[in-house]
Amino acid sequence: GAVVSQHPSRVICKSGTSVKIECRSLDFQATTMFWYRQFPKQSLMLMATSNEGSKATYEQGVEKDKFLINHASLTLSTLTVTSAHPEDSSFYICSARGRDYGTSMGYNEQFFGPGTRLTVL
Amino acid sequence: RKEVEQDPGPFNVPEGATVAFNCTYSNSASQSFFWYRQDCRKEPKLLMSVYSSGNEDGRFTAQLNRASQYISLLIRDSKLSDSATYLCVVNRRGGSQGNLIFGKGTKLSVKP
């Protein structure tokens, strides 16, 4: 159990276009989904946290109007990179957390999707 | 200072070697600690949680020192398949409501 999928796995687009990335929890209900970005040889950086049915909470320095997040259901969240530019080229990874996957430490584990590699030309 | 700092690496070791990774965190309120493994161009995967008493999973041993805000991972009898980047991860606000803060990772390369 606890499988998270992302689509597409790779996308190449022209500068100025918008790209939508989907994140799905396949076998559990994700009350919270997270979006991360990872540049080469850098750590994963949390971009935003979204709870189903409410607005996403963005981390400092992340433009909410550029990175649109929708978490319309308990199994799907989308990230839209609007008017993408070459500096947005990165590895975008989502993770999902559900109610039922707690550990003995009281922490609900996050399950990561396989990531989407975005290249903006 | 970064919230989570790790050995810069890379670590190049022969098969069978023992290798240790260190990590420090700055937020003393952090309550949950983890080691993740990330293969090249893949998503991170949970390797093990880290408990205050220290814990072991096969060849892997994790330790936590809250007073020093220090976490370690020891890998014994390294295998070629252990080659990956190891990420030290801390739960920022503690408990089930917190978010994960990732270290930059330490790359391990195990050679035949």
List keywords for this structure.
heterodimer, A: 121 residues, seven-stranded mixed β-sheet, four-stranded antiparallel β-sheet, 57% strand, B: 112 residues, mainly beta, 11 strands, 0% helix
Structure notes:
The complex is a heterodimer of chains A (121) and B (112). Chain A has strands at 4-7, 10-13, 19-25, 30-38, 45-51, 57-58, 67-73, 76-81, 90-102, 108-112, 116-120. In chain A, the strands form 2 sheets. In chain A, strands 2, 4, 5, 6, 9, 10 and 11 form a 7-stranded mixed beta sheet that branches. A 4-stranded antiparallel beta sheet of chain A has the order 1-3-8-7, with no helix packed on it. Chain A contains no helices and 11 strands. Chain A is an all-beta fold and 121 residues long. The termini of chain A are far apart. Helix content of chain A is 0%, strand content 57%. In chain B, a hairpin with a 4-residue loop joins strand 7 and strand 8. The mean pLDDT of chain B is 90. With 112 residues, chain B is mainly beta. In chain B, the strands form 2 sheets. In chain B, strands 2, 4, 5, 9, 10 and 11 form a 6-stranded mixed beta sheet that branches. A 5-stranded antiparallel beta sheet of chain B has the order 1-3-8-7-6, with no helix packed on it. Chain B has strands at residues 4-6, 11-14, 19-25, 33-38, 44-50, 55-57, 60-65, 70-75, 84-91, 100-102, 106-111.
Quick gist of this model?
Chain A is mainly β and 121 residues long. In chain A, 0% of the residues lie in helices and 57% in strands.
Categorize the overall geometry of chain A: globular
The major β-sheet of chain B equals: 6 strands, mixed
Q: Which structural class best describes the helix and strand composition of chain B? A: mainly beta
Number of strands of chain A: 11
Count the DSSP helices of chain B: 0
Name the average pLDDT of chain A: 89
List the helices and strands and how they pair.
The complex is a heterodimer of chains A (121) and B (112).
Chain A (H helix, E strand, L loop, with lengths): L3 E4 L2 E4 L5 E7 L4 E9 L6 E7 L5 E2 L8 E7 L2 E6 L8 E13 L5 E5 L3 E5 L1
Parallel strand pairs in A: 2-11
Antiparallel strand pairs in A: 1-3, 3-8, 4-5, 4-9, 5-6, 7-8, 9-10, 9-11
Chain B lengths: L3 E3 L4 E4 L4 E7 L7 E6 L5 E7 L4 E3 L2 E6 L4 E6 L8 E8 L8 E3 L3 E6 L1
Parallel strand pairs in B: 2-11
Antiparallel strand pairs in B: 1-3, 3-8, 4-5, 4-9, 6-7, 7-8, 9-10, 9-11
